[in-house]
Design brief:
By secondary structure, the protein is of the alpha/beta class. The chain has helices spanning 4-18, 40-48, 59-69, 79-88, 110-114, 133-142, 156-161, 168-177, 190-199, and strands at residues 28-35, 52-54, 70-76, 98-99, 118-121, 147-150, 164-165, 183-187, 204-206.
C-alpha cells in the first residue's frame, strides 16, 4: 500500500519542512524504514536516504537503530507494525501521526509533524486487519486458558487484547516450547496456522 512515487512525494514534503542535513548531534531529521514485504524500489529508496529495511522479528531493534541516527522515523507501508512496535517501546500514540499520501502534509499540521517520533504510513495488511477483539473474546470463552498470540501487523486493539504479539518465528518458537496439550489461538495467515496445527498435533491450534 506504498508506492515509490507516493513515498517520494512524502519525502519531498518532509525534507521541505525539516531539511535534509544532520543537526548538531549528527542526527538526520527523518530516517525511512520499510518492511521486508515491500517493493525493491522502496528498499532502494531507504538505502539512498540513510534508512533501513526491517522484518517483524527485528522491528524494535531497527527502530532503536533509526533513533540513534535520526530525530524521527518514517515507517511504511504497514501502520500497525509501526504503531505496535513503537508503542511497546514506550513511544506515545500522539507522537505517531498517520500519513495519508492523498493529503498535503499527510493530513497533519506542521506542529504534529514537528512533535512526531514515528510517522505511520496509511497502509495495512489486508489479512491481519481482519482479526478482531471479538474473535479473541470468543476464543477465551470457548477455550478457557487459551494462549492468544497475534502478529504485530494486527490492529493495536487486537494486539492489546492478546496475550502476546510476535513474528511468525516468535509464534513458531512459542508453540514448539509449550507443554503438550496446550491451546493456542493464533492471529496470522490461516495457511501458517493450519501448518502449525498439522506439525504439532499434541496441541490445539486454531486461527
Amino acid at each position: 500500500m506504498a508506492d515509490i512515487d507516493s513515498v517520494a512525494a512524502c519525502w519531498e514534503q518532509l525534507t521541505g519542512l525539516f531539511g535534509s542535513e544532520p543537526d548538531d548531534d549528527g542526527r538526520l531529521p527523518v530516517i525511512p524504514v520499510t518492511y521486508m514485504n515491500s517493493s525493491a524500489a522502496l528498499k532502494g529508496f531507504c538505502g539512498l536516504n540513510g534508512g533501513i529495511v526491517c522484518t517483524s522479528s527485528n522491528a524494535a531493534a531497527v527502530l532503536d537503530w533509526a533513533f540513534e541516527r535520526g530525530r524521527r522515523v518514517l515507517s511504511f507501508p504497514d501502520q500497525h507494525l509501526g504503531r505496535n512496535t513503537a508503542k511497546a517501546m514506550g513511544i506515545p500514540l500522539e507522537a505517531m501521526p498517520l500519513w495519508n499520501p492523498r493529503l498535503p502534509l499527510g493530513g497533519n499540521t506542521v506542529e504534529q509533524l514537528q512533535d512526531s517520533r514515528v510517522l505511520l504510513w496509511n497502509g495495512f495488511c489486508s489479512v491481519h486487519k481482519r482479526f478482531t477483539v471479538a474473535q479473541i473474546e470468543k476464543a477465551r470463552a470457548d477455550y478457557p486458558g487459551v494462549r492468544v498470540i497475534v502478529h504485530p501487523e494486527c490492529p493495536m486493539p487486537v494486539v492489546d487484547a492478546a496475550d502476546e504479539a510476535g513474528s511468525t518465528d516468535y509464534i513458531l518458537k512459542a508453540v514448539d516450547a509449550a507443554p503438550d496439550g496446550s491451546t493456542f489461538a493464533v492471529g496470522t495467515e490461516i495457511n501458517r496456522v493450519n501448518r502449525l496445527a498439522a506439525q504439532y498435533p499434541q496441541h490445539t491450534i486454531f486461527c
